[in-house]
Amino acid sequence: MTQTITRLLFAGLTLLLINPAFSQEKPWMLGPFERPANAQPIITPVFETQFQDVMSGKKVKWESMATFNPAAIVKDGKVQVIYRAEEKLGEKEIGGHTSRLGLATSPDGFTFSREKEPIFYPGNDSQKEFEWTGGTEDPRIVETNEGLFVLTYTQWNREVPRLAVATSTDLKNWEKHGPIFKEWKEGKYHNVESKSGAIVTQLKDGKLVAAKINGKYWMYYGVPHIWLATSDDLVNWVPVENHEGNRVPVLSPRPGFFDSWLVEAGPPPLLTENGIVVLYNAGNSQQVGVKNLGNRVYTGGQALFDASEPWKLLDRTDDQFIQPELPFEKSGQYPEGTTFLEGLVYFKGKWLLYYGTADSMVGVVSTPAK
Predict the structure, then answer these.
(1) Which of 71, 165, 182, 365 has a CA positioned 20 to 30 A from the CA of residue 325?
(2) Is the pTM of this model over 0.70?
(3) Under a CB-based contact definition with an 8 Å cutoff, are residues 176 and 127 in contact?
């Protein structure tokens, strides 16, 4: 009997050590999330699809190298995932390809069909100076009460990555509004690296919509720190500054923890009865962080901010709640491994969390809604 109990305890401890991603250390957290049985990537590169590229004038296999870093939204009773795609050019230099955004649709959140051409890309339009030739990267998406879809994404012209906004009513036809800080204070932050815009949402009548707090919309953004910005209309944004006129990080890296190298806003945060739950991407610096995670590994953390003062940090996880474990999460363009969080939806009584794996594919985890 004693031996049996010992074996069970050992097995349980082994399971915890192997799979720490699904720990639930604080009651306000979303989760615990679980991978599907026999988990596989849900969106992978394909060579068959082609697209007439405006920049080169040639047909390109636009998603032949990588399909990763997904936004997600529910529309018409289906999960819609907008993913970043890169064509294969013979090398794997991160940042050296052109990124476009594809659209995949699923009736269950796990099996997807895809559009054959990108739905968002650098074109011959008002944004070409900011998007040629690096492209459009790393989307997040929210919906308004009126049904307008608001996309935040990174414009990459191979000089400065800039956070930008676009809007749509159907996810296929988009109006680009340009870099979010171009006009503010004569472009004070226009030429400063910005990316990863995560607009706060709330669950209303079973649907996630952009939330107003104190009469304004709020967005967590940036890397290696996370900053705040506010908006009246979801298009024009004002960075939150202190009395000295400087941006104030609301979340920063911590020596000794899984997020010792950098923190970066994940999917749109969720306004809950406990506060604003921010899922964020965390980079580890092995020298000053967690030794057994490896160097530059991307995991996921959660932070809780005050519901009426979104800059006020209330709590934060001590451990990552998700991390690269499976082969497809640790192989590809980014061999150190990533579970890079960007898409969160409420769908059929579950939370579905979509993430990029090693800058190469898309994965999903889920948890029943509490």
Answers:
(1) 71
(2) yes
(3) yes
